[in-house]
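Quick entry, no commentary yet.
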Amino acid sequence: MLRLNKDRVVAFLLVLPSIVAILIFVYGFIGWSVRVSLSKWVGFSPNYAWAGLQNYVSLLNDPRFRIDVRNTLIFTTLFVGGCLLLGLVMAILLDQQLRGEGFFRSLFLFPMAISFIVTGVVWRWLMNPAQGDRISGLNLLFDRLGLDFLVNSWHATPQWGIAAIAIPAIWQMSGFTMALYLGGLRAIPDSLREAARVDGAGEVQLYRRIILPLLSPITLSAMIILGHISLKVFDLIVAVAGKQLPLDVPAIYMWQTTFDGNFYSRGATISILLLLSVAVLVIPYLWYTLRTEAEV
């Protein structure tokens, strides 16, 4: 018994520095950001005069913030949906025991190994909106192939330019969802598939009635992770198109408000709203996961 208590004390002391660091640099800074969001701090000199919820009310009534929310919803819908669909298709293809599976698996996963900044730099050239003598990238390819109807302005398209930004994001993260789905497919027993085929189920019915429902926990996990990424997207948009109002998202608004405009109270308000939006996704998922593990 004494030995067990000693081991617990040693284990606690080993993780204590990490606990202290998290309390200070994560939760401490979150608390400080909440306090700043409730203040009137504008400019370099701190001003902690109480403002209450005034910053939140004014932000929700801000037309620019409404554009940010709209762009985030469009980007999230296309990004998450595209990654799930493309990842599932690639996983199903790799699950057919094709020759060279290892090569294709590495090929699909490779984009995930690079950062959004690198992806943005490459796709900035591929999605160059310039036409005429300055045409390049995908527009040049479409032009040479006689597919003029596909030539477009990409992220420079009014209203829907943010949809083009989802393309490089899908390209980078679809390999991640492919790996998740492939692991789930390989975990399904072959005997279950054979039993379904013996009962007369075709391949479409097999995937629709058996395999896809079994993959629903993986789909949920992928949606949470991808949704979390999409809500905080910043570097990809800046690398592709810079800071433009039609492509504005809360993270860019927060950066410009805080570091370019020195409106620290409003910047903290945006950051807290971002944190709450992420928490809306993550906390229910963690609760569901813990509850499921406890039942098992």
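second:
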Amino acid sequence: MTLAKHIGALSVIGCALLASQAARADEPFVNPEWANSAWYIGAGIGQSRANIDNERLTRSLTANGAVLNSFKVDERDLAYKLFVGKQLNRYFAVEAGFFDLGKFGFDASTSQNGRLVGEAGFRGVNMDLVAQLPLSDRFSVLGRVGMNYAKASTHFRGNRLFAVTNPNPSERKLNAKAGLGLEFKFSEALALRGEVERYRVNDAVGNRGDVDMASVSLVYKLGRPAASRPAPVEPMPAPAPVAAAPAPVAPASAAPVAVSEKVSFAAEALFDFDKSVVKPEGKAALDDLLGKLQGMNTEVMVTVGHTDSVGTDAYNQKLSMRRAEAVKAYIVSKGVEAARVYTEGKGESQPVADNKTAEGRAKNRRVTVEVVGTRSVNQ
């Protein structure tokens, strides 16, 4: 496959994935990480580098007293890979893939007009265990170990073929591979990976070496978790009924009754993904809450931010506090005294559901607003 075909095929895949995301641009981010047990596919392109055994080839070319005049090597080429994976849990996945590491060669000349040109190409399949450590809602560190089954196809030409035993050897071998990388999530479904991998290979003429591949990949998750809905605002209790009087009497006196309300909002109802700015839908939900508080003598309001367990404790603590502060700022902008509104950030320390499932994590990403005050009712 030519360079143009390589790039063209991967460009089509990339454009299709990006177009699908553009069509969903108006949908809220629901889950900062992929759902457990999710399948995904991907494609990557990059540059590979091989180590050619110059010393051994030089010995073969000069074995009969010839003098080596020049030895040129081509150790880099375009490489690509296609893969499919299964997310086992939040931290581990298994991947199976096909790879083409490109072709590498040398051109050697000796005294007496001797010449030997060689070229070797490597392609095959692999199976890896991939470990993923989230650094934030969007960034993760990747590590992988696995096995690759590669076919090495080698071709020699020139008038010094006696230096090799077979001009067109091939070899198939099972060897190890490993890699490190970073992943950035554009959305729930689409992510970008940058990786460096090392493939252990045999080159069909008795040599064993490594081919390194540095690549950039697009990863697309098959299927999406259902979008979570904002938690309904709990209605304020209705005023106590007034007993009917048998005859006209003086107006009943009003007595204050202590009222305490606690309302929970799903984080996606108030904020965009990984943000702490209240969006229009969130403002509407808070306006609805403040409307239900009309007639109440508010003494204290407490906004408390919570997160799921994705990311570090320190990051989640800061994110929960930023969101609690954003809710307070909006409430104060609507006329509530700032001195009466307190904020807390609980991070991931108080889950209300299991963080092992997408639905549980959605429930844990929330902001609660607790209101304590008095309301006058007729006695």
